[in-house]
Amino acid sequence: MTTTPTPNLIARLRKRRAPLDLRPDEFRALGHHLVDQIADFLGSLPSRKVTPCEPVQSVRQLIDFNRSLPEQGTEPGPVLARIADQLFDHSLHNGHPRFWGYVTSSAAPIGALADFLASAVNPNAGGWKLAPLATEIEVQTIRWIAELIGYPSDCGGLLLSGGNMANFVGFLVGRRTKCGWDVRQAGMQAGAKQLRVYTSQETHTWIQKAADLFGLGTDAIVWVPVDGERRMDAAQLRSLIQKDRAAGLQPLMVAGTAGSVGTGAVDPLNEIADICAENDLWFHVDGAYGAFAAALPDASPDLRALSRADSVAMDPHKWLYAPLEAGCVLVRRRQLLLDTFSYHPPYYHFDPELTQFFDLGPQNSRGFRALKVWLALQQVGREGYVRMISDDIKLAGELYRILPDHPELERQTRGLSIVTFRYIPSDLRARCGDPDVEKSLDDLNREILDRLEASGEAFLSNAMVNGRFCLRLCIVNFRTSLEDIEALPPLIVRLGAEADWKRRGT
Questions:
Q1: By CB distance 3.0 to 4.6 Å, which of 22, 96, 255, 350 could disulfide with 199?
Q2: With 60 as the cut, is the pLDDT of residue 1 above it?
Q3: Does 432 score more than 60 pLDDT?
Q4: Count of other CB atoms within 10 angstroms of residue 129
Q5: Could you say which DSSP state residue 258 is in?
Q6: Which residues contact 9 (CB under 8 A, 6 or more apart)?
Q7: Rounded mean pLDDT of 461-474?
Q8: By the 8 A CB rule, do 319 and 105 touch?
Q9: Going by DSSP bridges, is the β-strand pair 327-331/156-160 parallel, antiparallel, or unpaired?
Q10: Average pLDDT of the residues in 437-456
């Protein structure tokens, strides 16, 4: 509806000041106070509980969850200060030196400053003209990451939200490249044969999502058995490919893993690369967790074989300690990213010689994720990352070494910086393997994990190893020290004894 503007409206618009705007002095005051709060918070992390372990109703009460949208605005200072304190006091602190759950890292402080700066400038890193410096920084960051893990530095790649999206991009490039028809135009229904994707039983759930979302269906996944070290069995892989070909099916790709989520297992990537080359299959590696360990001087031959993959997914927000979100995919032949994602509608008028990230992945509008990774790479360099990743692995190894000093603790696996173990009361140790005893041990270790979380003294997760419920420690944490690691076994023994008293009814 069009109305004639009043003189008052014209005067207001001529000197417009929106409710969201802040004068430089206002912004400076808010920012200085917030930085002081954050600095104090970071300094207080070791003395805090890892998690407050609060019920959902308590969390909702903090923000008056059921209130309606405010009709009028309020001063930003008190709201900002209050929510900062609430986040500090009511969050799971993955920056705590005793946070060892999942594969979530302590975030580098420079990354927080980088996100602050990136948000202030707010470049759209989808196209070069929209974000010239941000685009070139991301291109350089991709090259540096490739150099760090020993991947060809002339590869293509981009930053995404995390491991799922990075793996999806590798999957889509492999599908388009190896399916044998123009899947972008004709769709999946044009294929004469059913496609098959091979991966180990330890692979993360991204593979089911990819097969589902991108038209293959989860029945297309062939789950390859693992060996005694929970690595893909290469001989079984070769046999399954031959069997499918003989049945008239079409093998498409193999998805290897460099650092499984459960135990840190690294698949025999060299053998898998040979099999893919022999069978003309796409070779993708999910290195979301472990790929950056390829930078270590003593990296295993299989980690070094990342360089042979057609595509690699990894997460800088894991072992580069970047704040969430920061995933990354590398593709050996950059042109294949363009072949998979590029479209040029009439309203796009960009110089084809410049990097246009909307041509290389699924997003058009993209945040400036690269800045936090780029700054941290410069702050510590290759040497700094090699030392921090190596220290994480050595600390996990030290836990694995000292576990037998505590008779109640049974170590299970060690891979990269992941250790799995479980608590076994002395009266049950001789009967391990009995189904009823194993169920009792599973229940007991679940109880220990719950008690540990409630205590806030440390944070672990769990893994199923050979059908057993195990406690799982994963160190991607530059704040963890040997003192922290040495404190864990006595803590588990104490909580285990408390849980066992409950089991016995005493």
A1: 255
A2: no
A3: yes
A4: 13
A5: B
A6: none
A7: 96
A8: yes
A9: antiparallel
A10: 96
Q: Is-above-0.85 flag for pTM?
A: yes
Considering only 118-132, 180-194, 413-427, 441-455, which range has the smallest mean pLDDT?
180-194
User: Residue 351 — pLDDT band, cuts 50, 70, 90?
Assistant: confident
Helix axes 482-504, 370-402, angle to 10 degrees: 60
DSSP secondary structure letters along 371-386: HHHHHHHHHHHHHHHH
User: H-helix or E-strand containing 277?
Assistant: helix 269-279
Strands 327-331 and 311-314: antiparallel
Query: Tokens 């759930």 appear where?
Result: 205
State the Cα torsion 444-450-454-460 to the nearest 10°. 110
Residue 232's DSSP bridge partners are 226
Give the tokens for residue 400.
């694995």
Instruction: Note the maximum CA span of the chain.
Output: 90
Q: For tokens 């269906």, name the residue.
A: 217
Instruction: Render pLDDT for 293-335 as a digit per residue (tens, 0 to 9).
Output: 999 999 999 999 999 999 999 999 999 999 999 999 999 999 9
- Record the tokens describing residue 377, joined without a space: 């790479």
Residues in a beta bridge with 433: none
Q: Are 400 and 414 in contact (CB under 8 A)?
A: yes
Alpha-carbon torsion 51, 56, 60, 62, what sign? Answer: negative
| C-alpha distance from residue 75 to each of 78, 340, 371, 407, 449 (Å) | 7, 48, 31, 59, 43
Neighbours of 408 (CB within 10 A): 17
Amino acid letter, residue 50: V
Coil/strand/helix, residue 24: helix
Tokens of 106: 């302590």
> Residue 74: how many CA atoms within 13 Å on its side-chain side?
8
Phi, psi of 149 (to 5 degrees): -95, 5
Residue type, position 165, single letter: M
Q: CA 457 to CA 47: how far, in whole Å? A: 10
- Asked if pLDDT for residue 345 goes beyond 70, the answer is no
